[in-house]
Specification:
about 140 residues, mainly beta, 1 helix, 10 strands
Length: about 140
């Protein structure tokens, strides 16, 4: 069973940075794609960032491109989301998840690049971590 534990969320001021961490168990990072998405209550999920480990291809939602960066440490089974120049509209619960087959990897990458809901690509995700950005 694949499991994820996200951490690093906090209350910060606009313009500050945060780094989220996701520890995964039950999969091998370099076989799949790992992504982050976020959700605000009452709104649709939004893909934020995704990395395909076979070739380190990354993709980002238009709303975070240039500010967020996804990376992974295979030895630690951990993926990170570095978030810089945070804005109040980045406030959300952030989740990490894995796409476990080539078709799902493609969906995850496409949906994330569009800033759309990528959850159809992911079979499971963790409990999430809350990020709140004050103006």
């Amino acid at each position: 069973e694949v499991q994820f534990v996200e951490s690093g969320g906090d209350l910060v001021q606009a313009g500050e940075s945060l780094r989220l961490s996701c520890v995964a168990s039950g999969l091998t990072f370099n076989d799949y794609a790992i992504g982050w998405f976020r959700q605000v209550p009452g709104k649709e999920r939004e893909g934020v960032a995704c990395v395909r480990y076979s070739d380190n291809a990354t993709t980002y939602a238009p709303s975070v491109r240039g500010r967020f960066s996804i990376s992974g440490d295979i030895a630690k089974n951990t993926v990170y989301l570095q978030m810089n120049s945070l804005k109040p509209e980045d406030s959300a619960v952030y989740y990490c998840a894995a796409a476990l087959s080539p078709p799902r990897v493609r969906i995850a990458l496409i949906k994330t690049a569009q800033g759309a809901d990528p959850s159809s690509a992911y079979e499971s995700w963790g409990q999430g971590t809350q990020v709140t950005v004050a103006s």
